[in-house]
Amino acid sequence: MPILNFRANESSEIDGKQISSSEVLEIAGPRFPAFLIRPNDQPNEHESIQGSVLVDTGARVTCFDVSIAERIGLPVVDSGSMSSATHSNHIVPIYAGTIALPDSGLTLKCNRAYGVSLEEFGIVGLIGRDALTNAIFIYNGSDGSYSLAL
């Protein structure tokens, strides 16, 4: 089982003050660089978007940013009811797509990723508990590091 190990950026600043890796991780969350691509495709400049995905253990399902999913032509496979801290029973499109993690060769096929607005948070997707079912995720807040094994 391949393991991805990351450490939050130690050279970050907020309001001119240097902050530690653990503070960066607390603020930004565990993010991995990734490509969002159509099912069965390889990342390329026309049919994929590079960005960050956030591992979100509070999310029951994996989600893609709806505007990015539309931009690269991810197929809509269904629609479903989404509830969150700010919405209840909101109907959203459900997409099929793949999260490709560069330099690792790992891909996460998502047959039912819910379409939500994520771009404002600087991410293209959320990896939810549905995708973590067969994974190992380690969050080391005091060190500012995290690992994902798929």
Explain how this protein is built.
This protein is mainly beta. The chain has a single domain (3-149), classed as Acid Proteases (Cathepsin D, subunit A, domain 1, Beta Barrel), CATH 2.40.70.10. The chain contains 3 helices and 12 strands. It has helices at residues 21-28, 66-71, 129-132, and strands at residues 3-7, 13-14, 17-18, 31-37, 48-55, 63-65, 76-82, 90-101, 106-116, 125-127, 136-140, 145-149. The protein has a 6-stranded mixed β-barrel. Strands 1-12-11 form a 3-stranded antiparallel beta sheet. The chain is globular and about 45 Å long. The N and C termini lie close together (6 Å). The relative contact order is 0.27. The model has no long low-confidence stretch (mean pLDDT 89).
Describe the SSE topology.
Blueprint (H helix, E strand, L loop, with lengths): L2 E5 L5 E2 L2 E2 L2 H8 L2 E7 L10 E8 L7 E3 H6 L4 E7 L7 E12 L4 E11 L8 E3 L1 H4 L3 E5 L4 E5 L1
Parallel strand pairs: 5-10, 6-9
Antiparallel strand pairs: 1-12, 2-3, 4-5, 4-8, 6-10, 7-8, 8-9, 11-12
